[in-house]
């Protein structure tokens, strides 16, 4: 069992991340982004500058949208992603370990972490669900 935990601790982000995740843009209407999340059954999306410049600038979750809807009217057609997104989210690199990812997730209370390169461009996304799949795979060995 100890060997299994030792193997798990060495897993790299690149092995468990979703490569080329969906994303949204700061000037996108919140209604369009929310519809994308609902259709794709996604709880959160990284936010990048634009289609050509995929530099990570934020993250938005269904929770952000629900809380905003509760606190204010989102009926305005002018509400955009940048109005509700969390700027400068916590991130990881593809060579970071599973232990490091879990520490961030638990300490910062987040369920997903964008994976960025050295220029802060989005290259992946680590989600708790993917981590649980990996744990299950190792436990079945």
Number of domains: 1
Structural class: alpha+beta
For the record, give the distance between the C-alpha atoms at the N and C termini, rounded to a whole number. Answer: 10 Å
Give the integer mean of the pLDDT values.
Answer: 90
CATH topology: CBS-domain
Which short descriptors sum up this protein?
alpha+beta, CBS-domain
Structural overview:
The protein is an alpha+beta fold. The protein has a single domain (2-139), classed as CBS-domain, CATH 3.10.580.10. The protein is built from 7 helices and 6 strands, in the order ααβαββααβαββα. It has helices at 2-9, 13-16, 30-40, 62-71, 81-84, 98-108, 128-139; strands at 18-19, 44-48, 56-61, 86-87, 112-116, 122-127. The strands form 2 sheets. It has a 3-stranded antiparallel β-sheet. The chain has a 3-stranded antiparallel β-sheet with strand order 2-3-4. It is elongated.
Give the topology.
Layout: H1 2-9, H2 13-16, E1 18-19, H3 30-40, E2 44-48, E3 56-61, H4 62-71, H5 81-84, E4 86-87, H6 98-108, E5 112-116, E6 122-127, H7 128-139
Antiparallel strand pairs: 1-6, 2-3, 3-4, 5-6
Summarize this structure briefly:
The chain is α+β, with helices and mostly antiparallel strands. 43% of the residues lie in helices and 18% in strands.
């Amino acid at each position: 069992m100890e060997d299994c935990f030792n193997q798990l601790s060495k897993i790299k982000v690149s092995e468990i991340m979703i490569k080329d995740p969906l994303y949204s843009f700061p000037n996108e209407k919140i209604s369009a982004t929310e519809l994308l999340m609902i259709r794709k059954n996604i709880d959160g999306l990284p936010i990048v500058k634009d289609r050509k410049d995929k530099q990570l600038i934020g993250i938005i979750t269904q929770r952000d949208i629900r809380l905003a809807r509760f606190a204010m009217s989102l009926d305005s057609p002018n509400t955009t992603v940048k109005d509700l997104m969390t700027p400068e989210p916590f991130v990881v690199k593809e060579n970071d370990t599973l232990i490091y990812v879990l520490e961030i997730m638990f300490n910062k209370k987040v369920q997903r972490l964008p994976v960025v390169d050295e220029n802060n461009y989005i290259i992946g996304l680590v989600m708790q669900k993917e981590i649980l799949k990996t744990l299950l795979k190792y436990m079945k060995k």
